[in-house]
């Protein structure tokens, strides 16, 4: 705990944003309440993305009631890999990533064997609201399992790494690559034990990382360096993230994307209350960058101008990119 406190103190000088400021000055100010369902329900997010021509993992089916659990076999069909997740889940909880099957048994991405009835039980728990925000009844969605691009093989351990970009009023402000570890069971959520690695906005080159609130430069499972890696398709990811402002209308979001080996960049989900650990991964606070965007918005508003996703991305890359390597 002391280590985290020290890190946080050191970051204060660099404009660290705390939870109260995030909520008051960003989440409440820029995210209109009536738009929340678009990001809080992954089925609605998917429908919106498809309408906007943005690629997402294909949805195989939705289960909304106990009775519909009988449809599971029909939804899965002959597929040997798929993902079951709560539509209103968060933090990686309740997600089942099935990587293989043989007869009536399934294997999760971390090697655990689960039976057909265990999957049904999991869906039943999802419907009851066990994993949903506020414990409300929920729906289960069954979707395409992403296979990460081979670039991630050397720096990741099982599961799917994801790329998180914080976007303020359509301007990307900070990025992080999240790498699953043995501990995180194939999921890229930090509190499940995944690693967060900062990413230079201009180039898409990785910086150092944070794991369980410590700073690191090597993956704990593979021991490969996590810094200095060029992420492919970087400008594409930046534009995709910037364009999510038009998709959902929320002004302060965390956009989670993955790079599938066959389908390329896909949007996994949007978050209306993105976490603050991204600042530790980047060794940089969000406050100064957020202020720079707000100043830009004021300047443009005075001229009656609005920038498109490409222009916004260019602005962010010029101002926030090219971070020199830091000694930790
Ligand atoms: N379709 C998928 N294929 C493979 N892994 C997935 C898939 N969906 C989610 N995951 C894994 O689970 C993690 C959490 O998924 P996400 O959809 O972001 O839900 P949450 O809101 O719980 O974070 C992802 O970061 C990824 O590692
Ligand atoms: Mg997520």
Explain this structure to me?
The protein is of the alpha+beta class and 328 residues long. It has two domains: 2-41 and 149-320, ATP-grasp fold, B domain (D-amino Acid Aminotransferase, Chain A, domain 1, 2-Layer Sandwich), CATH 3.30.470.20; 58-143, Dna Ligase, domain 1 (2-Layer Sandwich), CATH 3.30.1490. Helix content is 32%, strand content 23%. It is built from ten helices and 13 strands. The strands form two sheets. Strands 11-10-9-8-7-12-13 form a seven-stranded antiparallel sheet. Helix 7 (234-248) crosses helix 10 (309-320). The longest helix is centred in the C-terminal third of the chain and has 17 residues, at 287-303. The mean pLDDT is 92. The structure holds adenosine-5'-diphosphate (ADP) and magnesium ion (MG). Magnesium ion binds at residues 189, 256, 269. Adenosine-5'-diphosphate binds at residues 57, 83, 89-92, 95, 97, 143-146, 159-160, 162, 180, 187-189, 256, 268-269.
Describe the structure concisely for a colleague.
This protein has 10 helices and 13 strands. The protein folds into 2 domains: 2-41 and 149-320, D-amino Acid Aminotransferase, Chain A, domain 1; 58-143, Dna Ligase, domain 1, CATH 3.30.1490. It has helices at 2-12, 19-30, 36-40, 42-51, 72-76, 116-128, 234-248, 278-282, 287-303, 309-320; strands spanning 59-63, 82-86, 96-102, 105-108, 113-115, 140-143, 162-168, 171-179, 195-199, 206-211, 214-216, 252-260, 264-271.
Strand order of the largest sheet: 11-10-9-8-7-12-13
Total of DSSP H or I helical runs spanning 4+ residues: 10
CATH superfamily of the largest domain: ATP-grasp fold, B domain
CATH topology of the largest domain: D-amino Acid Aminotransferase, Chain A, domain 1
CATH class of the largest domain: Alpha Beta
What is the rounded distance between the termini?
Answer: 18 Å
Provide the helix percentage.
Answer: 25-40%
The number of distinct structural domains comes to 2
Task: Specify the overall morphology.
Answer: globular
CATH architecture level-2 label of the largest domain:
2-Layer Sandwich
**Unreliable runs, pLDDT <50, ≥5 residues?**
none
Strand content: 15-25%
Question: What is the chain-wise order of helices and strands?
Answer: HHHHEHEEEEHEEEEEEHEEHHH
List cofactors, ions and other ligands: adenosine-5'-diphosphate, magnesium ion
What Rg do the Cα atoms give? 20 Å
Mean of residue pLDDT values: 92
Number of strands: 13
- Main beta-sheet annotation: 7 strands, antiparallel
Structural class: alpha+beta
């Amino acid at each position: 705990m002391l280590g985290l406190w020290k890190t946080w103190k050191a970051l204060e000088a660099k404009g660290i944003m705390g939870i109260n400021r995030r909520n008051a000055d960003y989440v409440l100010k820029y995210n209109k309440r009536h738009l929340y369902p678009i990001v809080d329900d992954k089925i609605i997010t998917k429908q919106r993305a498809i309408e906007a021509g943005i690629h997402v993992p294909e949805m195989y089916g939705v289960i909304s009631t106990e009775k519909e659990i009988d449809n599971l076999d029909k939804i899965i069909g002959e597929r040997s890999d798929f993902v079951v997740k709560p539509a209103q889940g968060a933090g990686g909880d309740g997600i089942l990533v099935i990587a293989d099957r043989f007869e009536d048994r399934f294997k999760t991405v971390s090697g655990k064997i689960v039976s057909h009835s265990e999957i049904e039980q999991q869906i039943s728990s999802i419907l009851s609201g066990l994993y949903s925000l506020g414990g409300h009844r929920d729906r289960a969605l069954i979707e395409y399992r992403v296979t990460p691009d081979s670039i991630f093989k050397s720096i990741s351990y099982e599961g799917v790494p994801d790329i998180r970009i914080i976007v303020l009023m359509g301007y990307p402000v900070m990025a992080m690559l999240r790498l699953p570890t043995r501990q995180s069971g194939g999921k890229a959520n930090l509190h499940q034990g995944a690693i967060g690695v900062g990413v230079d906005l201009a180039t898409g080159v990785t910086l150092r990382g944070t794991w369980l609130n410590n700073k690191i430069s090597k993956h704990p499972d593979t021991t490969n360096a996590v810094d200095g890696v060029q992420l492919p398709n970087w400008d594409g990811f930046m534009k995709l993230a910037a364009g999510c402002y038009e998709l959902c209308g929320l002004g302060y979001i965390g956009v989670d994307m993955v790079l599938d080996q066959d389908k390329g960049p896909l949007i996994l989900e949007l978050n209306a209350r993105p976490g603050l650990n991204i600042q530790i991964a980047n060794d940089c606070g969000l406050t100064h960058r957020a202020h720079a965007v707000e100043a830009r918005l004021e300047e443009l508003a005075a001229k009656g101008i609005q920038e498109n996703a490409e222009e916004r991305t260019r602005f962010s890359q010029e101002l926030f990119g090219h971070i020199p390597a830091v000694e930790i």
